[in-house]
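TOKENISED FOLD:
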Amino acid sequence: MVCVSDKMIRIAQIGTKHAHAKGKYDTMLKFPDLFEVVGVVEPDEKRRTEMESNGYEGATWLTETQLFSTEGLRAVVVETEVSELVPTAQRCIESGFHVHIDKPAGTSMSALQQLHETADQAGLTIQMGYMFRYNPGFEFLFDAITNGWLGSITEVNGMIGKSANDLLRLTIARFPGGGMFELGCHIIDPLVTILGPPEGVEAFTFRSHPEKDNLADNQLAVFRYPTAVATIRSNHIDPHKRRKFEVIGEKGAVIIDPLEPPSIKLSLDKKFSRFSEGYQRVDLTLQDGRYDGEFIDFAKVIRNEKKLRWDSTHDLAVHKAILQASEMEVD
């Protein structure tokens, strides 16, 4: 029999092919007081051999069947290719485990709905891996809105870019939604956190290098709300790698630029708390690692110390908005 502390969470990872896989694995190992990482599953034998000496040294390699029969296992982190994220998570949920799933949650709306229905019925948590949820800049933004500092929100603008090389272009081009689907999803999540599901989405998609590939690499989506308009841009031909998010209300504004590490400019029409009227910079306490906050929170949820802030209704609304913004079918 395996003896595990009541506070120690037995956890594992399935998949190593997602862009965030290694970072998530390292973060779990970083918190040995929270997690016991029992193993990693990588069904692709060639990939597994590569990873054994490339970031996963010392890992215990398991088959999925072996993993699911591991005594005391509580949660699984799903870091497969995007096409396998939801099917893999479905098997985990059906086997009785909480799951952390990286983004975006596949191309099928109906498959994601089924996953959440199964989890909700079983009382299990799905934590999506949108990387700005626990970013100190966004945490400050969410608090400012909750505290009423900005007043009624009238405008949200987000931008996330990178300069994709030819190999990355081919990888992302497998999805008709291109960069908005693969990367823009990260800032659609906080938009829906702030304003909820949009009434409508209008997408503008450009493919800049048809001589190379069919990648949708320069995209804009406009989200309509009853009292606000939001725009989200994703640009994979941006040599400056601009990433920013701004929220404007009738009483104030928060501008996060850049997103990592976050730098905030706050504007208020009158003094609130320790902040004065007008524009000012905000000092933030930065986290050590990009994924620290989400795994610390995941542990609290698994221990029943709290509920996850983002529930199935939110995650489904986000995914629908992502598909719409990417001009992908919503089945």
